[in-house]
Each structure stands twice: as structure tokens, then as C-alpha cells.
Amino acid sequence: MLFFYNGVDSAWQAALGNGEDCIIINDITPPQASLLLEEYHALLGQNKNLNLQSIKMLLAYTNKN
């Protein structure tokens, strides 16, 4: 489990992880989350995990949208 301080709502929060990786994106609407998940799956393709370039592309996508 990962604990972090969320500056947007001034509260400590926790996220359950899989022990391998975690990217937390704050203050996101359900429609934005759906689009982000679609982009994630598009970048993932047939791979089991995202590679470094795909992660950078996903983070760039979040900054644009």
C-alpha cells in the first residue's frame, strides 16, 4: 500500500498497489479516466507492461488532455 499527501484536498490518502508500479493521477473526472484508460490500452497493445517510452507517451497524453 502506498500512502501520500494529496495537496488538492489537503488529505492523506492511500492507494493499493501490485508491488511493481503505480502512477497516481489526481483530480480526474470519470470521462477523463475513461479516455486515459483507452489511451493506456492502446499503448499497451499486446504487451504485458508498458515500456518507458509508452509511459512517457501516456504522461504526455495526460498533460495535453
Structure commentary:
- The protein has one domain.
- The chain has a two-stranded antiparallel ribbon.
- The chain has helices spanning 30-44, 52-64, and strands at 2-6, 11-15.
- The protein contains 2 helices and 2 strands, in the order ββαα.
- It is α+β, with helices and mostly antiparallel strands.
- The protein is globular, with a radius of gyration of 13 Å.
- Helix content is 43%, strand content 15%.
Please provide a brief summary of the model.
The chain has 65 residues and is of the alpha+beta class. It contains two helices and two strands.
- The proportion of residues forming helix, as a percent range, comes to 40-55%
Number of strands: 2
Biggest sheet features = 2 strands, antiparallel
**Overall morphology:** globular
Task: Give the strand order, joined by hyphens, for the main sheet.
Answer: 1-2
Q: What amount of the residues lies in strands?
A: 15-25%
Q: What are the secondary-structure elements, in order, as H or E?
A: EEHH
Stretches with pLDDT under 50, minimum 5 residues: none
Mean pLDDT: 87
Number of DSSP helices?
2
Rg (C-alpha, Å): 13 Å
| Classification by helices and strands | alpha+beta
Tell me the number of structural domains. Answer: 1
> Cα distance, first to last residue?
28 Å
